Amino acid sequence: MELSKGVILVSGGLDSTTLMYEFVRQGVEFIPLFVNYGQHCAAHELDTLRQVIPAQYTEKIEIIDVSSIYKYSQSRFIKPADLWNEEVKAEDLYIPYRNVLLLTVAASFAQTLGLEKVYSAFINSNHAKEIDCSSEFFNKLEGLLSEYGSVKIEMPFRNMTKYDVAKLGIELKAPIGKTFSCQASPDVPCGACPNCVDRLNAFKQIEQEAGHNV
Fold first, then answer.
1. Between the CA atoms of 194, 131, 161 and 24, what dihedral angle is there, to the nearest 10 degrees?
2. Distance (Å, rounded) from C-alpha 148 to C-alpha 150?
3. I want to staple 181 with a disulfide (CB 3.0 to 4.6 A). Which of 4, 84, 191, 195 is the partner?
4. Would you tell me how many other CB atoms lie within 10 Å of the CB of residue 179?
């Protein structure tokens, strides 16, 4: 993948962390942008990001707070559940137009800096049940933004799996084991939400392959 200078949406998760290290490998500068949209794990995500980001970018993290937008949301990604006593389904984690918000905020921010690229580490996983998580949606949004502005949305991992990204992260020596991607818990990975399941399955597959190669 060929990269050029731009804004990367970062969260302290496996995918965006791997993408940052790919930028470093290619010697391309980037602006790490963290958006607080009211997610219950925002503080933990930001703390994790500071631990996993390439050292030369630790002091360059830009933070935008739009948390009040979802202050009335009942999503369990905004208001954490009591995981000991409450069952959380995938649909309970849905946040209306979250990806629209993240990408348009990032595109607006990039344009103020005179940058033409916004990078998101979104992958085609099993999360495409939501309207704004499908490839079709992102294609349309990308077209809309390019038609009415100079910013282009880039998703280098769109056609990769979590396993593919994890393998790339290992190759890049990114600290993917320290990353945090849980949707249901603000502090400790629940191991059951879609993000946790994908992450654990990817690590399990890599571990099994390593065992076969011994």
1. -100
2. 7
3. 195
4. 24
pTM value is 0.90
Q: Give the residue extent of every domain in the chain.
A: 6-212
Instruction: Give the C-alpha separation, 166 to 183, whole Å.
Output: 19
Closest by Cα among 206, 186, 205, 211 to 44: 186
Q: State how far the Cα of 174 lies from the Cα of 160, in Å rounded to an integer.
A: 17
Q: Within its chain, how far is the Cα of 187 from the centroid? A: 17
| Residues whose CB is less than 8 angstroms from the CB of residue 163 and which lie 6 or more positions away in sequence, other chains included | 201, 202, 205, 206
The DSSP secondary-structure symbol of 143 reads H
22's tokens: 């790919």
> Under CATH, to which class is 6-212 assigned?
alpha beta
List C-alpha distances in Å: 201 to 152, 164, 191.
32, 11, 10
35 bridge partner residues: 64
- Give the pLDDT means over successive 10-residue stretches in the chain (214 positions): 94 97 98 97 96 97 97 90 78 85 93 94 65 68 71 89 95 96 87 86 88 57
Quickly count: other Cβ atoms within 10 Å of residue 87's Cβ: 8
Token pair recorded at residue 194: 């879609």
